């Protein structure tokens, strides 16, 4: 068993990037759980390992998540943060909610790489520009190709095969996979990676937000984000069923790191569950791996055509 | 002092069995020559070497007839519970009900070893998308599909959360194939924060009260499901009695381990001790017989210890072994290399510690479950290893990696570092696949080198 390249890269970044005041990891995968421990022994910044329950259908699981959010809050305070007033928390949540609405819109119009980059910047604290998503919707049927199952690349430059990219998180530089797909004649019309729209929390309920922002935080994040680690994983397949149909994707590319058991098992099931062709990419996180990825994507697109 | 206990080939062990049968010695109904299991495909048995005692013969027969017992239980109308992943908690609850039998489908991880890959379970797993990047426990999925091993349980439970990803993913794949699972949450055990209410766990660690409460509430869901399945209540009284019985077995095993790992010369081989320890987690589908098997083994070990009779010469290098081996034959190998066990941590030390008898039963079970070495940090596990290695006088530590297991990527590094810092002992990591024959020269060389190192260190 080797170490997941993403977990390794994450640990390297925490230990080497300047100014890292603390690291927050979650229990959503075993390797990250153990990476948290490794980091805390490595003499780096303070580390919090947040329990995110795998089960989600019981009040106890939601309670655990809420308690862990509070523990996260205490950790942040210990790093120099201030405990927010209830109104301040609600305002912040509203601001983020508005940003996510823009990102969801951008995902529908900008398509693969640009939307992914917007989400990545948002994850780093940059608020998205609402006007950026005013382009013609991505996934529009290509002129004269309405029955072909093809769509236009952003800006309507050329016809492309719509595909979904599903799986674990993209690391910095991995957005090149969007280019590889486009160069092979495809277009990502659904970003179901952990760093894509799939992992955006659901829109907030404004009334509940005013009543109990923490509870709404639990509902919006823990209650709705589908993922392969959840047990059972029904939410993931509900989400995929809905979004794949809406996006008219004709194939699925699974982005999973070598040694990632959760997405490895899901990759096999995706084909059964959706009936779509699936390309299972084993991402090793190095340049040679990227080269292999390009060839695999090209071959997959040939099959789809 | 009498001579050394011998290790027997399968043929020699079967001769012992036939002699005992012919002499009218009391033997359980399931006992017989192991050759019959070889006929059924358990070819690895031909390559193993066995302790020469009637107690070991009984142990092997008991282990190898588990599937028969499960099928008999099904035929007798008893309910079968497949308890996945928790290694020692839910079976205690299940056996508190009179008409319920629990077993670990996870145990199928040894089937490819015992059948020397002839059974095709990995191939089936591969067809389900569970290839060799997964731990050998993927064989379990194959066993569910081909139905050639254990009966399909009436209820399947699985702990998730702070468990290895392999298992969680494989179990989810099972559910997608139409086997409903009662998932119950096991949080990642953490140190209590300053001022946070905390409790002591069996084994010596502490955990926040809130985590214990969560596990208790999850186990209440399991309790309700078991009671519904059995059609009879599973009250505190029944659970208390079940815990008492489990503790009796743990007590037997505790003494057995103490003698087997501390006495010199070593009175019981590593292979039989591995099997014996495994009985603690689910009683091999018969709790009462499990106790009887361990009691006979303990009698044998007591008698050998008193007589100074061992399976190795006195002074053999004492190795502390971490993680169970996927290939049972490797336990023979360590003795072939001149070593003996000086302690073990097979991933389920929480199933060896006594369950607190002075607490309400569900609280006691929750604390025991949370003491699972796999749900806490590796440094906790390492601390346990340090404590036990010190107690047993271990002179080196072997971390046996399980191929593909998500926990093996980092834990060996962490545990090795703690052990070296605390005990200044040599630590070796080995990877043991289900049939390790191609790696035999490498494994032998590494173990022999470790033994040499140990012996050399004694001269300092």
Rounded Rg of chain A: 20 Å
Globally, the shape of chain A reads globular
The CATH level-2 architecture of the largest domain in chain A is identified as: 3-Layer(aba) Sandwich
> Order of SSEs of chain B, N→C?
EHHEHHEHEHHHEHEEEHHHHEHEHHEHEH
Order of helices and strands of chain A: HEHEHHHEEHEHHHEHEH
Identify low-pLDDT runs of chain B.
none
Q: Outline the biggest β-sheet of chain B.
A: 4 strands, parallel
Round the mean pLDDT of chain B to the nearest integer and report it: 96
Strand content of chain B: 5-15%
* CATH fold field value of the largest domain in chain A: Rossmann fold
Unreliable parts of chain A? 142-147
How is the topology of this model organized?
The complex is a heterodimer of chains A (305) and B (460).
Chain A (H helix, E strand, L loop, with lengths): L4 H12 L6 E4 L3 H12 L5 E4 L8 H20 L7 H24 L2 H12 L27 E2 L6 E9 L8 H8 L2 E8 L12 H6 L1 H10 L11 H14 L4 E6 L3 H14 L3 E6 L3 H18 L1
Parallel strand pairs in A: 1-2, 4-5, 4-6, 6-7
Antiparallel strand pairs in A: 3-4
Chain B lengths: L6 E2 L1 H14 L11 H5 L10 E2 L2 H11 L1 H10 L3 E6 L5 H5 L5 E4 L7 H4 L6 H7 L11 H8 L8 E7 L3 H12 L5 E5 L11 E3 L5 E3 H22 L5 H27 L7 H13 L4 H21 L9 E6 L6 H8 L2 E7 L15 H10 L7 H15 L3 E6 L9 H13 L3 E5 L8 H19 L2
Parallel strand pairs in B: 3-4, 3-5, 5-6, 9-10, 9-11, 11-12
Antiparallel strand pairs in B: 1-2, 7-8
Helix pairs in contact in B: 3-12, 3-13, 7-8, 10-15, 11-12, 11-13, 14-18, 16-17
